[in-house]
Design goal:
With 354 residues, this protein is an alpha/beta fold.
Length: 354
C-alpha cells in the first residue's frame, strides 16, 4: 500500500533555494581558487575600487574573464560591487583571502576542498566496492591546500596556547628534547615548533614522498633545517626514542590508529607525552549538525574515511570521531592518561601519557 504524505510547499521551496545556494557555494570554491592562483585577491587587497580592466592589467590576465569573475564574486559576497564597473575587496575579506600569515586565513581551504571534489567519480565507485582511496591518490593540490589551510591555526595556537596547556611539556621543549611529528605533511607544524624551541630537535615523518620533499624545503626556508629531519614512512615505521610525539589532524586518517599509537608509545621516553590534535567534534551525531560539522563530515567522506579504508584494518574513525572514541583508541594503545588540554572552534587538543 502506498502512503501519501502531504507536501509542505513552503518547506519544499525553502529547500530548493538552499540547494541553489549550495550550487553557488560549490562554484564559489572554484572562483576562489582561480582568484588565488592568479593573484587577483592579492592585487585587490588595499587597492580600493578597481575596474575589471585595471585588475586585469595588474595581474596579466584578460579583462573579459576578470569581469565575469568579479561579477560572480560580487554575487557571492566575496567582493563588493561599488557600481557596474568598480569592485572592492573589503579589508576584512582581504585578510582571509590574501594574507596567509593571518590566523583568519581560509584560502588554503578552497584549494583543499576543490582537490577533494575532483575525486568524486572515484568515490562513486568506492561506495559500491568498499575499496579505499589513499591520500596520495588525490589531486596534487590537496597536499598544498592542506598545509595552507592548517598552517595559520598551527602558527596562531601551537606554541602560544596548545603546548603551554600541556603538563610539563613546554619547559622540556625550551630546555631541549627530541620531538617526532607523525604525519607531518609539508612540515608546517614541525617548522612552527622548531622555530619556537631552538634547543630541541625534530623529526617529521610522512608516507607521502612529495610532502617530505616540500617539508625539507619549508624547513630550509625557515632556517631550521639544522634541527629538523624528515623521513618517508608511516607511523609504525618511526624509530628512535622521543620525549614528545605529535599527531596533527592525522590520527583519524590512519587505517589502524590503535596499532599506530601502540607503536608510537613504545618509542616514548619515560615521562614523555603524545600531543594529539583532531578536528573539533562532539561525541554524537546530533552534536555536529552545524556548518563546521558539515565541512568535516564532507571532507571525511571524500578524504579521511577512504584513506583509512585503503590501509590495513581500516578502522575509519572519520574526521568527527569525538573525544570519547579517541580516548578509547588511546587507552587501547596503552595511553590511559588522556586529557583535553585545549580547543578551538576547529580543533580538539589532547595530551596522552602512559
Amino acid at each position: 500500500m502506498t502512503t501519501t504524505t502531504a507536501v509542505d510547499e513552503q518547506r519544499l521551496m525553502n529547500f530548493v533555494f538552499k540547494a541553489v545556494g549550495d550550487f553557488g557555494a560549490m562554484l564559489a570554491g572554484s572562483m576562489a581558487v582561480i582568484g588565488d592562483k592568479l593573484g587577483l585577491y592579492r592585487a585587490m587587497a588595499g587597492a580600493g575600487p578597481l575596474t575589471p580592466a585595471e585588475l586585469a592589467e595588474r595581474t596579466g590576465t584578460v579583462e573579459r574573464y576578470v569581469r565575469e569573475w568579479l561579477s560572480a564574486q560580487a554575487a557571492a559576497g566575496y567582493v563588493e560591487a561599488v557600481d557596474d564597473n568598480h569592485f572592492l575587496l573589503p579589508t576584512e575579506h582581504a585578510i582571509a583571502l590574501a594574507d596567509e600569515n593571518s590566523p583568519a586565513s581560509v584560502i588554503g581551504g578552497f584549494e583543499l576542498t576543490l582537490a577533494a571534489i575532483r575525486s568524486t567519480d572515484r568515490l562513486v565507485t568506492a561506495f559500491k566496492t568498499g575499496e579505499g582511496v589513499g591520500w596520495h591518490e588525490h589531486h596534487e593540490d590537496l597536499f598544498e591546500g592542506t598545509e595552507r589551510f592548517f598552517r595559520p591555526g598551527y602558527a596562531a595556537n601551537l606554541t602560544s596556547a596548545w603546548i603551554p596547556a600541556m603538563d610539563g611539556v613546554e619547559e622540556k621543549l625550551s630546555a631541549g628534547i627530541r620531538v617526532a611529528d607523525v604525519g607531518c605533511g609539508h612540515g608546517a607544524s614541525t617548522v612552527v615548533m622548531a622555530s619556537a624551541y631552538p634547543n630541541s630537535t625534530f623529526v617529521g615523518i610522512d608516507y607521502h614522498p612529495g610532502s617530505i620533499e616540500a617539508a625539507q624545503d619549508r624547513a630550509a626556508s625557515a632556517g631550521v633545517s639544522n634541527r629538523t629531519r624528515f623521513e618517508v614512512g608511516r607511523a609504525t615505521e618511526l624509530t628512535g626514542t622521543y620525549d614528545l610525539i605529535c599527531l596533527f589532524d592525522c590520527l583519524h586518517d590512519m587505517g589502524d590508529p590503535v596499532g599506530a599509537l601502540t607503536h608510537l608509545q613504545d618509542h616514548l621516553s619515560p615521562g614523555g607525552s603524545v600531543l594529539i590534535v583532531e578536528p573539533f567534534a562532539g561525541d554524537h551525531l546530533m552534536d555536529n549538525l552545524n556548518p563546521v560539522g558539515a565541512v568535516y563530515y564532507g571532507a571525511s567522506t571524500l578524504l579521511c574515511t577512504p584513506n583509512s579504508l585503503s590501509q590495513e584494518v581500516g578502522a575509519a574513525l572519520g574526521a568527527q570521531a569525538g573525544e570519547a572514541r579517541l580516548r578509547e583508541v588511546a587507552a587501547a594503545a596503552g595511553l590511559p592518561d588522556f586529557t583535553r588540554v585545549a580547543e578551538t572552534p576547529f580543533n580538539l587538543v589532547f595530551q596522552a601519557r602512559r
